[in-house]
Design goal:
The chain has one domain (36-277): von Willebrand factor, type A domain (Rossmann fold). It contains six helices and twelve strands. The protein has helices spanning 79-94, 99-104, 143-163, 185-196, 216-222, 238-261; strands spanning 2-5, 16-17, 23-24, 61-71, 105-112, 116-124, 166-168, 172-177, 205-210, 229-232, 266-269, 275-277. β2 and β3 form a beta hairpin. The two termini are 15 Å apart.
Length: 283
């Protein structure tokens, strides 16, 4: 089981141990008291939020924002996009069996093709949650637009959730793509640098997953560390690998919610079947 330590009370210029002999790069240079504040479904537009503000200093709970950032380009047509949609439905339907997910995790969906779209604003998972149906659009694969959307969305979400009285753990991003970015490398790499910048207080932990024609070198760059990058094994079915990815994302939510409820500030993630870990640690 792979563990990533969520920065908590991290002092500037220090790194946070994962508890598994791994240093979390997202923790480096983190702010003191890196528990911020998530609540009911929220919007990146403060004027559109329905969350009720609470008196300053009142804490109603702690939550972990998780974002699925998925490739919705034309190359995902057919079984791959169907596997993504089914995985999201299965995730929602499992919530009834694991009520702590609704209590401890908030979930959002951003997709990208020629441009990025917020398909689900950060929300409390429940059986009644209406999920988007993803479908291929356009011919481009703009990593830059997805990374920029994250950079803009996460701080707004954290601020809104803090206003609802919640403390917020460092967000986690599950990034999935089946191809190469179609823009110049300098463009998406610049957006990635902004997202990973140690001065960006709300920078997320990024786990990146490549299927189909994705480039392992690019997937490794996207992840917070190459060790948090994963590639589909050669010869595996893309749709099958995506299904395993969705299962692992759900299992991570369950395990992380249980740990956070016990006061253990770690998220757990187990490598999906049909994937290899990039830059796996030596034994």
């Amino acid at each position: 089981m792979m563990k990533i330590r969520l920065p908590s009370n991290t002092r500037p210029g220090t790194a946070t141990s994962t508890g598994a002999g791994v240093t979390d790069p997202a923790g480096a240079g983190g702010p003191t008291g890196a528990l911020w504040s998530a609540g009911a479904p929220v919007s990146a537009d403060p004027s559109a939020s329905t969350a009720e503000a609470v008196p300053a200093g009142v804490v109603v709970g702690q939550v972990l924002p998780m974002y699925f950032v998925g490739d919705e380009s034309h190359s995902m047509a057919g079984d791959p996009i169907a596997a993504v949609n089914q995985g999201l439905v299965d995730l929602r339907d499992e919530v009834a069996k694991h009520p702590l997910i609704g209590k401890k995790v908030r979930f959002g969906i951003i997709t990208f093709a020629e441009s990025a779209q917020t398909r689900l604003e950060l929300s409390e998972l429940s059986e009644e949650l209406v999920l988007p149906t993803l479908s291929p659009r356009g011919r481009g694969t703009s990593y830059a637009s997805a990374l920029e959307a994250l950079r803009q969305t996460i701080p707004a979400d954290v601020a809104l959730l803090k206003g609802s009285g919640y403390q917020v753990h460092r967000p986690s991003v599950f990034f999935l793509s089946d191809g190469l970015p179609t823009e110049k490398a300098e463009k998406w790499q610049a957006r990635l640098a902004e997202l990973k910048d140690p001065s960006f207080r709300e920078r997320p932990n990024i786990l990146a997953f490549g299927v189909g024609e994705a480039d392992p070198a690019v997937i490794g760059q996207l992840a917070s560390s190459p060790r948090y990058g994963f590639m589909m094994t050669q010869g595996a079915s893309t749709a099958g690998a995506i299904a395993e990815f969705a299962t692992s994302m759900l299992n991570s939510m369950v395990a992380s919610a249980e740990r956070l409820d016990r006061g253990d500030h770690t998220i757990e993630f187990e490598k999906p079947e049909g994937f290899v870990q990039l830059d796996a640690p030596l034994l």
